[in-house]
Amino acid sequence: MVEAVEEIVELSMLYDFYGELLSNHKKTIFEEYVLNDLSLTEIADMEGISRQGVHDIVKRCTKQLREYEAALHLVEKFRQMKEKLSKVQELLKQTETGAESAAFEEASRLLSEAMETL
Fold this sequence. Notes:
The protein has 118 residues and is an all-alpha fold. Helix content is 83%, strand content 0%. The protein has helices at residues 2-18, 24-35, 40-47, 51-72, 74-95, 101-117. The two termini are 27 Å apart. The mean pLDDT is 88.
């Protein structure tokens, strides 16, 4: 069960970064399956294609999104940046002192905003 959830999270993340590179038809089917959690049969009925056709499209999209990540590493870079920002934020919290407090608070606030936008 945990592996299935992790797979969905990974595919969602890949889709967020590279989904626009898919055709509209593929995007629709992939979104319905991964993001909206519809079954292959439900999507097949909606799209007027076979269940196997939906399965093949989802598999091809998954492969294509993973290939984009293997070539561009945008998700990996995103995760690394988020991790680094979290560490910087923790360090700021640990070193906050008297007169520098306002500067640390501002830096911490900016880091929080940056992390939210990621």
